[in-house]
Specification:
There is one protein chain. With 450 residues, the chain is an alpha+beta fold. It has 3 domains: 135 residues, no CATH class; 147 residues, DNA integrity scanning protein, DisA, N-terminal domain (YojJ-like (1); 160 residues, YojJ-like (1, CATH 3.40.1700.10. The chain is 32% helix and 22% strand. The chain is built from 14 helices and 20 strands. The strands form 4 sheets. The protein has an 8-stranded mixed beta sheet. The relative contact order is 0.08. The N terminus is likely disordered.
């Protein structure tokens, strides 16, 4: 009785602590959102229960409290799943505090980075269904993240290490049978990073480690061969060329692919798309499906939207800055681009050596260009300007905007952002930063950053 009374007296304090943990977790992954407590509810629910709302916000009950989550735009499916995953993990950890029978063997759930556990719950929620599942199922995602994070601190012959893993899924996959476990199989855990040959046989780009459902490294897989059965399937979202096969590898079966890139970034693929990346010291929910849908809807031309999006991702992957401006009306080109930079300008009026090469791409459509050519001209200092019919109007063009930029000066990140904001008043802008981020601007505002 005394123990039970102590637990009940400490419960309000514990609930208050978990309210703060929920608030921090939601703000971490959805930084533009606002979470508020709006009242108490009669039923104490360990699992999050969403209430019906009509204004694009979210209302849900959790641990006896009702919350309201608001944002400047409607929450996507992946954003809602992220909120649900944060609450699910915290609920399971909360349950363990009052379950003495299994708490001792589940101490690892209280260690490590909590944000890693949120990502793990999003990707493989079975592990955190309840105290029993935590005790019996390996947290393969968190273990794999730890392997990649340690590997990111290492180098080989003065080069950064890249590596990766494919976690075999729990859903049916007609193309791949459940892998058998070799007698001497090792767990895919941080201990592997001490093996000198580990990174050499598993580079993350061509070869990745196959991890079975128990968390053991059971095979080395050629990513392209693994993804071959799905190569004819269309991806939900266009992908960077380097990681297209990684996306394809997760189209069926619920497989999860984690890669440490040569840039030191951790990318996680599932459901045929990139779901997360660890970039600039923090996790980002990619939410690429809803972001691409917004971009495609703004352009209104599926082929053009896909071509520019893919080109932007490829440039970002190689840390090459660039910008694509798709004008709503081609006649606005003269308002943001010097006449000398327009492809339609006659040869006699061209002055600079750069512009003397414009004849090569006159009367060209971006959708008719190879990806390599499109990405090459996008890397020239300045911007690629085109209209909704994909007609190329200018490339390497210094855009006019409020902050004047010398035409001989290379556009830096600040100047590129200012140019993107100015140009987005006349159309839709896809900007690539040299830090590896892709941003969509419209009507003077950043719609999203990927």
């Amino acid at each position: 009785m005394v123990g039970s009374a102590r637990e009940e007296s400490g419960k309000p304090v514990l609930d208050g602590l978990y309210q703060q943990l929920l608030r921090r977790g939601v703000h971490y992954f959805l930084p533009s959102s606002n979470l508020e407590i709006v009242g108490q509810v009669a039923e104490w629910t360990p699992q999050i229960v969403f209430q019906a709302v009509s204004n694009g916000s979210l209302s849900f009950d959790w641990l006896g409290t009702r919350y309201a989550l608001t944002n400047h735009k409607e929450f996507s499916d992946h954003q809602q799943k992220m909120v649900r995953s944060i609450a699910k993990f915290l609920s399971t950890r909360h349950e363990l505090l009052f379950n003495r029978d299994v708490a001792a063997q589940n101490m690892p759930i209280f260690g490590g980075l909590t944000e890693d556990r949120y990502v793990s719950t999003f990707l493989d929620g079975r592990v955190f269904d309840d105290a029993v599942s935590v005790a019996t199922l390996p947290d393969r995602v968190s273990e794999a993240i730890e392997v990649l994070r340690i590997s990111a601190l290492s180098s080989y012959e003065d080069k950064r290490i890249s590596t990766g893993a494919l976690l075999f899924g729990a859903w049916p996959d007609a193309c791949h049978s459940v892998p058998s476990q070799p007698a001497d199989a090792l767990p895919y855990s941080s201990d592997l990073t001490a093996i000198h040959s580990f990174h050499r046989i598993c580079d993350g780009l061509r070869t990745i480690a196959l991890v079975d459902e128990k968390g053991f490294m059971v095979e080395l897989v050629d990513v392209q061969e693994w993804a071959q059965p799905f190569s004819a399937l269309e991806l939900p979202v266009p992908s960077a060329r380097r990681y297209r096969t990684h996306s394809q590898a997760t189209l069926c079966g619920g497989h999860i692919c984690l890669v440490l890139t040569p840039n030191g970034e951790i990318k996680i693929f599932g459901e045929g798309v990139q779901l997360f990346n660890f970039f600039d010291g923090r996790w980002h929910l990619t939410d690429s499906v809803s972001k691409y849908e917004a971009w495609e809807a703004a352009i209104g031309r599926k082929e053009l939207a896909a071509r520019l999006f893919s080109a932007g991702l490829n440039l970002a992957e190689h840390r090459r800055g660039g910008m694509f401006v798709v004008l709503e009306d081609a006649r606005h080109a003269r308002q943001i681009v010097s006449a000398l930079d327009l492809l339609e300008t006659g040869r006699r009026k061209r002055a600079s050596a750069k512009n003397r090469l414009h004849y090569l791409l006159q009367k060209t459509r971006a959708t008719d260009l190879s990806s390599a050519v499109l990405e090459s001209i996008a890397q020239i200092d300045g911007s690629v300007v085109l209209d909704l019919d994909s007609r190329l109007l200018a490339f390497g063009a210094i855009l006019r905007h409020r902050q004047q930029v010398d035409e001989d000066e290379e556009i830096g990140e600040g100047g590129r952002t200012a140019a993107a904001i100015g140009a987005s008043q006349f159309g839709n802008v896809l900007m690539v930063s040299e830090g590896g981020q892709l941003s969509f601007y419209q009507k003077g505002h950043c719609v999203w950053t990927l």
